Amino acid sequence: MTQTDSSIATVDAPPAPAYEGHVTPRDVEQAVTTDGRLFEFRDMEVYFPVRVGFFRAMVETEKRFVKAVDRISFTIAPGEILALVGESGCGKTTTGRTLLGLEKMTGGEILYKGLPVSHFTQAALRLFRRNAQIIFQDPYNSINPKHTIYDIVAEPLLVNRMVHTEREKEEQVVKALESAGLRPARDYLYRYPHELSGGQRQRVCIAGATVLEPDVIVADEPVASLDVSIRNDILKLMVQQKEELGVTYLFITHDLSLAWVISDRIAVMYLGKIVEIGETEEVVKNPQHPYTKALISVIPVPDPTTRRERVILSGETPNPANMPSGCRFHPRCPERMDECSEVEPQDVHLGGTHYGACLRLGR
Amino acid sequence: MSAVESAVAQQPAKGLARIEHEGLLDVRDLVTYFKLREGDVKAVDGVSFMLEEGKSLGLAGESGCGKTTAALAILKLLPANGRIVSGDVLYDGKNLARRTEFGMSKIRWKEISMIFQGAMNALNPVQQVGKQIAEPILLHENVGEAKAMARVRELFELVGISEKRIREYPHEMSGGMRQRAMIAMALACNPKLVIGDEPTTALDVMVQAQILDLIENLRKELNLSFILISHDLSVMAETCDKGVIMYAGKVVESGTAENLFTNPQHPYTRQLIRAFPNIHETRAMVRSIPGDPPNLLDPPSGCRFYPRCAERNPGCDAVVGEPASTEVEPGHIVRCVLAHTGVTS
To answer: Which one, of B261, A341, B140, lies nearest residue B151 by Cα?
Structure first.
């Protein structure tokens, strides 16, 4: 990889420390977050091998991969909500899952408080996983219907041996439920998921994620299956937890308007690459990448009087097993130039924390 | 009109005479209940709206407000425990609410078709998509398979799918493509009215924009009337000429899209609009509406929104029965005590 190949948001980053040996739990405990980088992704890639038939495997010498995430670099600051926005299949969920260690990265590195996750020992990984939790999209299927709310929220505490007495356990569960907005918590402890509404279930999921007081919560489309009013309650809760408890969120969503409402920064992904990242206000009001511009232009707004120019991209996201050459967005780009099909754009610093990857930028 | 039909038309006692009504579809005081062991769920309780030919109308509200039930009642496709209790569904001079099942089978798809919610995931996985779209054509039109397939090819072109894909199976198509196929199926027999139940809900924003754009173009090209059922007010604002806001089985406000969004009169409409982010304005936290919709087994008498209303007055709960409707502007109807007394404006 050459020097010019630096990807988005790390243009000014120092070179990665060459890490020798293993990272032990003690290293993790002693590590501190420096210069606002709780997590740092460096050229992270997640490739899934494409299974081919016997004959093809004989003929083709090169193995084929689905490049779900293709060398992305960005940082997550402590106490921020970073929204990862993109269409389905752009790799946003894979990025979140890789952060949690649920997917294996095939290249690059994730630094947690400056320590490379790939060098973590098993014990260090256990500690790390305690500090990184997830909320899933569907609160109807992601909690066990045969467990009480108490058991559901207490389970992470037991798994991680965080509590030693029954009283301690109950205290922590009650605290988590109350901070998730289920008040009074004691009314909910011995109820079952089917007795709760969708919004309340999602609150239980949030309580289960926050009970360990993690450093980061990956919220994967946490409101996609909820009704508007409940959706807004959950979004409000996320902001509230960020402000009051300092929870860091990686908010994965396909809906840029929701990202706009609650996030501090937005990263727009397209086909495994971050095409634009920056402060929320900056990305939404002053988008630079043609893809971001198009995405923003098609978001419906509850106001029929504002007729605006909509940029509807034709076709669909190409198959990531068959990546277009040059800029991966060029086949659908309304502003493409001749060179776009040949040259892969590098990240361009657009001021502040705003970066974009397009050949038209920075000229 | 054929001799038989005109003979029938002279017998108004049979209810087949042409009924005079406004627009293409005129729903009047529709009441639809579902029977449960505990009693009747009053899912749609006195809903009226009217749609002119070639126009689009949006039915919006939170889940459970009765918008889908109202649409199913128009086509008489209610589940076995559902029934139309009273009210009229006047379509092109006929009262669909009183039609027999046989009579309805002549209306469905030939006159009114529907894009069902999540139907793109309900395609038969072991049958070619083209063949599935040909099914309603074979059923409703007196044509053979070759002609039906030719029509399917036409439809594919109309909705922007390459006709080469006619032999593909559902799993070979993306979500947006399958939704296009569902639109093709809805248009198969040249209906005058298409009902779309959340046609873009499970789709990405860009695909949603493509589908809405397609529906809009088809509507103009084929002079279709369209009813959009959506929980998303923003989508309704973008696509519909008229809008009907429903709450707990009742229409709370109806009017042109512009009436509803620039001059909302019902507190529910106002609160609902504020629940959607507007990315072109200044950034603000979206607001939620506290509380839950009432249980429709035993809805409160009087204003059904009263318990959750942010603008309620002491006078509100004194009202017995549904608040009277007020026409605040021509065609803009609000059912709210406050609008009636002129407190809100």
So the answer is: B140
